[in-house]
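Dear Dr. V.,

Thank you for agreeing to look over these. As mentioned in my earlier message, I'm a first-year student in the group and I'm still getting used to reading structure tokens, so any feedback on how I've presented them would be very welcome. I ran two proteins. I've put each sequence directly above its structure. The first is here:
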Amino acid sequence: MHSTRIIAAILVLGIAVCVIIGPTYLETTRGELLISPTAEYWFGTDSLGRSILARSLGGMAASFGNAIVVLFGAIVIGSLMAIISILQLDKKVDQAIILSVEAIRAFPTIVLVLLFAAAGIPNTILLILFFWTSIWRLLRNLLAIQQNQPYALNAQLFGMLKPQVLLIEVLPNVWSSVRNYLPALLAEILSVQTALEFLGFGVTLDEVSLGRLLSEALSLGFAAPWVWIPSLVLLIISVSALIWLNLTLSENQRWIPLG
């Protein structure tokens, strides 16, 4: 398992380097159209003469940055909804949340996302509204278990209100378990987001992203594979690194499905 930690750390570090140097260090210079990899252009150029290396790293930075924003939004909304459910100020509210989550999760992820994307909802908002359910489901189960533990009951006996107990005592204790599953959730977000971009949702013609770069395979195919293969490799490496990181973090945790 130590080798898994090392591999995961190396891959995650590589992703971080791409995100940092992609938009700042490499410049997209123009050269000849569709040049195969050379000493000057390591990954060749695209149909407009732009460096594939620069565009791939820039696309990685853009897609990964958007996925992190979605993850943060999902954490905020999912945590809030989980606390509301556990407080049970009104059981009808909890039942409404449960029915909403079940309705969302009843459909295959990509099908439901495509339906709402076709309605013109921005990708970031759309993905947040979908993936908060994963955080809610996991956190609600953990809070429900921990709120009946002796330390939580003792806090209430000392005069703390139930919302205070959840926020101050219980939530910090369960957060480590939630944190361990965030890499897997981020990998799923990145995959779905790339699929939307590949199909043309949420990105304009002048924007760069992994999905947008992969869509060039539809027009160029194997006539110029160097245009889209780097983006595909970056996506596979990113998702694999996040999954390995998830396995490393959760090796000592009891497995709880994300939904």
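The second protein is here, in the same arrangement:
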Amino acid sequence: MSTKRKDHAINIIMVIIGLTLFSKVIGFARDAVMGSIFGTGMESDAYLIGLGITTIIFLSLGTGIATSIIPISVKLEKSKDKNKVLSGIFNCVLLISGIITVLCFIFTPEILHVFAGGFEGEKLALTIKLTRIMIPTVFFIAVAYLYVGLLQAHEHYLLPAIISFPYNLIAIGYLIVGVNGYGIVGLAVATTIGWFLQMVIQIPKVHQVTGFKYSLQIDFKNSYVKEFLVGIVSISIIAATQQITYLSDNTMASHFGDGKVTTLYYSNMLFLAIVTTAVYGITSVMFPKFNKKFAELDKSAFFSAINSVLKGIILLLAPVSVGLALVSENAIGIILMRGEFTFEDVKMTSLLLIGYASYMIAFGIWDVLNKAFYTMGNKKVPMMISVIIIGSNYILNLLCVKKFGIVGIPIATSIAFYIGVCISCLFFKRSEGELDVIGMIIVGMKALISVFVMAITILGVNSIWNQAFQSTHILMKLVNVILDVGIGMAIYLLGLLILREKNILDFIHAFKMKKKKKGDHEYE
């Protein structure tokens, strides 16, 4: 990749991360308002289980659809059959998501007996009602993510990065204005309407960018349609790994009494908000580029890009995971501690978040390697890894919960993902031989040393802060978190510079050259 194109890709990634982060902040606001109104009681547990079964788990279907359509759309870019093939794929999505929606509605009680085994009586009845209200989101998610994939294939990333705005704004508006009249049932309705709008707002841009003209036809014998159908099955299973482990975690948490499902949800939500902002911000831009390099038979550039992204993921997520653990209690207190959400709820959510934060790097490497395998047409290995992660998580949940109680749930998930990543790296290295393991270890060691110094510094700063300011006011907590983040970033980057980390030095050199060229241009 040329320096100019690399700089352009970095700029796009930074914009996407910024927009996604802004979307997550609005999501935090939504959850903060919900937490203050419903706390960690029966109603919030019922809503979050319903949300998990409908929206959260079927996001994996959306991911499968978006990921599968990208390489096909790249291949069809100049084909005369583009509209015919895309119409067939679109109709397949409508058919599949429609069938799933109907089946989920009919068998809601049976599904809940699996994923909410600890619920019974009034709590179970409410959960069934809320789940059925939100089931249409399965259909809206499928179509919305087909549009996301088409836009990303044509290198339009901004709209996909902000599609969560309608849902979040509608949910917040309802919680502020309408919750007293319709309660938790109204929130389920608002969730469904929000996902409908997330689908609708993309339609004009998709038609403008792709020139797609819909027709009512499906050719199941078409090679592209077959490729798409095979792709969404395998990739959806792979993408569902995190969601299935979360639902498995939820099932375990449902046996610990009222409120535990809710605290687990908030900790997992905060973890995913941060890790997906960073990881998907990078891979959503790089995955179409991986496909183009591979399609051009430029394998050297393809593997170079994979290794570069993996090292970048390690450098980025190492300080984020440790930093998140260090500021977790203050951050959760700022976002959630009001109304019915108590200090004890904050402490429990913080402990669970620390457990989830420990597998942030594993999540990032897992996602990048999955994208690499997809590009090479190998979906068997990622599927096998997903089965290993899900199975390991279930077994480890049983073991860790006995040893550590509810805190054992995220510990089990973390161990399961690291097992999966190690096996994935081994298969990638053996099958392709192009994984720079030594380079990744060196980068990891430099990141580890820098993070250790960063953590010691932040702990020292917090000790001094707590002695000087003993206030628990939300503003003081916010200042403390900002101070921790600022000092932590500075110490971490300084550590990498002292250790002469190549990726950081290259970035600084590129920034200086860009600034110099801009200055020369202005001088002329």
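From my reading of the second output: The two ends are 29 Å apart (CA to CA). Residues 140 and 438 are 44 Å apart (CA to CA). Does that match how you would interpret it?

Kind regards,
E.
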